[in-house]
Design a protein that fits this description.
- The chain is α+β, with helices and mostly antiparallel strands and 386 residues long.
- It is 50% helix and 15% strand.
- It has three domains: 7-120, Acyl-CoA dehydrogenase/oxidase, N-terminal domain (Butyryl-Coa Dehydrogenase, subunit A, domain 1); 123-229, Butyryl-CoA Dehydrogenase, subunit A, domain 2 (Beta Barrel), CATH 2.40.110; 233-378, Butyryl-CoA Dehydrogenase, subunit A, domain 3, CATH 1.20.140.
- The strands form three sheets. A four-stranded mixed beta sheet has the order 1-4-5-8, with helices on one face. Strands 2-3-7-6 form a four-stranded antiparallel beta sheet, with no helix packed on it.
- Helix 4 (69-82) runs antiparallel to helix 8.
- It starts with 6 loop residues before the first helix and ends in an 8-residue tail after the last helix.
Length: 386
């Protein structure tokens, strides 16, 4: 894949960067948005829609822009650099990915335009308390009503922006044991459907999530996404794309963290001189830059492989990228806080907020140790040590 940007991609990058940099000009603006009823700016979400950002990954036939992994990478980097709060991951990357890979053409034609216009937000309710990082571990049940519909029972946890989403895409087990790879279905429900209850809360990085209880929630045949019982491949592929997006977001966040730290050590004085003149500080700064560039190269690999049809090849590359991203994110975050000293831990300074987001990215969809085990089992690429 040629990662030199085309003219259209440069225009898209300028558009995303301009919008996010303007609206997240300082930390105070982000703090104000966090206090909004939905945990983000509904006005800015509509600006995302107006500029076509919500349409990036969807096919032109479905009302989208027909963008690919590179366009999504550009969006991820911009969101990472500004710590944007809008539910792009929940609505466009995760839920949109499931619709692209599993839904029928008729369902996409009905649902995608409302995502693209910003009229409806989505959340993917998949994670369960016992599952850890196993995507096939689904305990929520879906019992057939004999007429093509289902009844959902169970609980989902840490559903990203699940407390404000208009629609939920819920994974549930139709048949098989709890960890069986077959027998998982995807179901579209209204977030206020009878029997569905949500408990929302803020996450460590300033975003929002919710625990969702499903008590005899009825789902009609027209709200079943794809072939019942065969949803895991679409979930796997969507999560791989989400990891690639997070890799780009992490690179954006690490860029800012490294730049903040470099500026600080150049101006902070101790014993009458800038602390950046001390050799040990210089070495640490170089190590931060090296970790960032290692992460960037693996984020490019994830971008290149996100659209790979061979699931085994795609997963090996995505896991390798996730290992390096996690290692680099931890190192850059911790080193940045260390070099900033006490100010780095205050809520009034940006560094601590970037460290928190990088920590959450490292844990999302499996931490470095989890993906290293997957690589060892598959015989895949082993990333460089940070």
């Amino acid at each position: 894949m040629d990662l030199d940007l085309t003219d259209d991609q440069r225009l898209l990058k300028d558009s995303i960067d301009g919008l996010t940099n303007r609206r997240y000009a300082d930390l105070k603006a982000r703090t104000v948005m966090m206090k909004e009823p939905k945990g983000y700016s509904a006005e800015l979400w509509q600006e995302f829609a107006t500029q076509g950002l919500l349409a990036i990954p969807f096919a032109e036939a479905d009302g989208g822009l027909g963008g690919g992994p590179v366009e999504m990478m550009l969006a991820g980097e911009a969101i990472g650099r500004t710590l944007a709060l809008e539910p792009f991951m929940a609505t466009v990357v995760l839920s949109g990915g499931l619709l692209r890979h599993a839904a029928s053409a008729e369902m996409r034609a009905k649902l995608v335009p409302d995502i693209v216009s910003g009229a409806v937000t989505y959340a993917f309710a998949h994670q369960e308390k016992q599952a850890r990082f196993d995507l096939a571990d689904v305990g929520v049940t879906a019992k057939s009503d004999g007429r093509g519909g289902f009844t959902l029972e169970g609980e989902k946890c840490v559903v990203l922006y699940g407390d404000s989403a208009d629609k939920l895409i819920v994974s549930a087990r139709i048949s098989g044991d709890r960890r069986a790879k077959d027998g998982i279905g995807l179901f579209l429900i209204d977030s206020k459907a009878q029997g569905a209850s949500r408990r929302g809360y803020p996450t460590q990085d300033g975003q929002r999530a919710a625990d969702i209880t499903l008590a005899s929630v009825k789902v009609g045949a027209d709200s079943v996404i794809g072939t019942p019982g065969q949803a895991l491949p679409a979930i796997d592929r969507t999560v791989d794309e989400a990891i690639a997006f997070l890799a780009a977001e992490a690179v954006g966040a690490m860029e800012v963290m490294q730049a903040l730290t470099l500026d600080y050590v150049k101006t902070r004085k101790q014993f009458g001189v800038a602390i950046g003149s001390f050799q040990v500080i210089q070495h640490k700064s170089v190590d931060m830059f090296t970790a960032l560039e290692q992460a960037r190269s693996m984020a490019y690999l994830a971008t290149m492989m996100a659209s790979e049809d061979n699931a085994d090849e795609r997963r090996r590359s995505i896991s390798a990228a996730k290992v390096q991203i996690g290692r680099s994110a931890r190192f850059v975050g911790e080193a940045g806080i260390q070099l900033h000293g006490g100010i780095g831990m205050t809520m009034e300074y940006k560094a601590g907020h970037y460290f928190k987001r990088l920590t959450m990215i490292e844990m999302a969809f499996g931490n470095s140790d989890h993906h290293l085990r997957l690589l060892a089992k598959a015989g895949g690429l082993i990333p460089a040590a940070a």
